Amino acid sequence: MKNIINIKETFKGLLIILSYFIVPTIIYMPFYFLENRNIIDYQIAMILTYLVTCLVYSFIYKKDLINDFKNFKENYKLILGTTIKYWLVGLIIMLISSIIINIIGITPNTNQEENIAILKQYPLFEITCACFIAPIIEELVYRCSMKRSTNNKHIFAITTGLIFGLVHVISSISSPNDLIMLIYLIPFSSVGIGFGYAYYKTNNIYGTIIIHSIHNIISLLQIIIIGGLL
Predict the structure, then answer these.
(1) Are 79 and 68 in contact (CB under 8 A)?
(2) What is the distance between the terminal CA atoms of the chain, rounded to a whole angstrom?
(3) How far apart are CA 201 and CA 221, in angstroms?
């Protein structure tokens, strides 16, 4: 009987995830002098930073990307259909849990407020990265990195989803009093868990990248409407 958890692959996967907190900072270093220049220059620098970051992780997982692309061309309907199914389940859980959290009266997650502020100040960067670059990086970092860490689909999906959710929620926690914000792990992790199940089921990263991109586009449109940016 095979071990459920592969310690070596789990460790490698966690290192890749941790590297995502460092790699963009290193890549951005040549652009530091642009911080006091105009907004357009700064946004282009940020886009280039994340584009290069995307290339770095694409190089790390180039074999997976090549093999998955061949498989995707032949089975894209099945792959996208399966991914959409799991995404919709995660999305429904996300919406219901968000409504319940608001009814309970917990302060709304500041992540959305930050996104509105960023979108107002850096629209070019936010739209380009959120809709097109970030889905590729995040699926490679959170899904591909843990692909061989376990042969249990539930452990894989829940672990990668919770890590994905925690990264998005942790920016709202600055003191022990903010730990209540961890309840937002439920809505933020639900879609990530859905993507985890979809990736495990299809064994193809392109399905989750495409639907992740669509999810972010919908979320961005929601932020634009809520923030009155139209």
Answers:
(1) no
(2) 57
(3) 29
User: Contact, 222 vs 130, CB < 8 A?
Assistant: no
**143-173 pLDDT, tens per residue?**
999 999 999 999 999 999 999 999 988 877 7
Give the per-residue SS3 of 92-106: HHHHHHHHHHHHHCC
Whether 187 and 91 have beta carbons less than 8 Å apart is answered as no
The rounded distance, in Å, linking the Cα atoms of 166 and 149 is 19
Query: What's the pTM value of the predicted model, to 2 decimals?
Result: 0.91
**Sign of the CA dihedral with 152 first, then 169, 191, and 103 last:** positive
Rounded Cα gap, residues 133 and 50, in angstroms: 7
- Cβ within 8 Å of residue 141, ≥6 positions away: 16, 17, 20, 57
At position 84, the amino acid (one-letter code) is: I
Residues linked to residue 150 through DSSP beta bridges, in sequence order: 5
